[in-house]
Amino acid sequence: MRTAGWTTAIIAGGWLGTMVGYVLTFAVLTAVRSPELGPDGTVEEQASGMSTVMVFLAHTAIVGTMVGSGAVLAVGRAGLGRLTAAVVAALGPLALIATGMLLLYFRSGITLEVMLWDSAAAIAGTALGIYLGAARRRP
C-alpha cells in the first residue's frame, strides 16, 4: 500500500508541478512581450527567436526538475527499481504535456513548430531528470 500511495503521489505531483511551472512560464512570457500595432491598428505579437529558446530552456528545466525529484522519491520512498522509478516519475509531466498539446492543437490550432519545440523540451527534460534522479541514485 505504501508503494501505491507514493506512486500515485509522484504521478500527481509531477503533473501538478509541471502545470504550475508552465503557467508561470506563460505568465512571465506574456508580461515580458511587448505587443506591436500592425498597419491596420490591430495588436500583433511576434515571438522572437530568443523567447522561443528561453521557453524551451524553461520547459526543459521544469520537466527535468519534476522527473528528477519524482525519480528520487520513487527510488527512495516508494522502494521502486530504477527503471520503474524512471517510468513513474515521467508519467505525470509527459501526460500533462501530451494532453495539453493535443487540446491546444484541436482547440486553437497551434503550429507544428510549437508542438515540436514542446516535444523536444519534454524529451530533453525527461532524459535529464531520469539521469539526475534515477540513473545516478544508488539503491
Automatic annotation (TrEMBL):
Taxonomy, superkingdom: Bacteria
Sorted UniProt keywords: Membrane, Transmembrane, Transmembrane helix
Segments passing through the bilayer: 12-32, 52-76, 83-108, 114-134
Protein name, per record: Uncharacterized protein
Organism of derivation: Lipingzhangella halophila
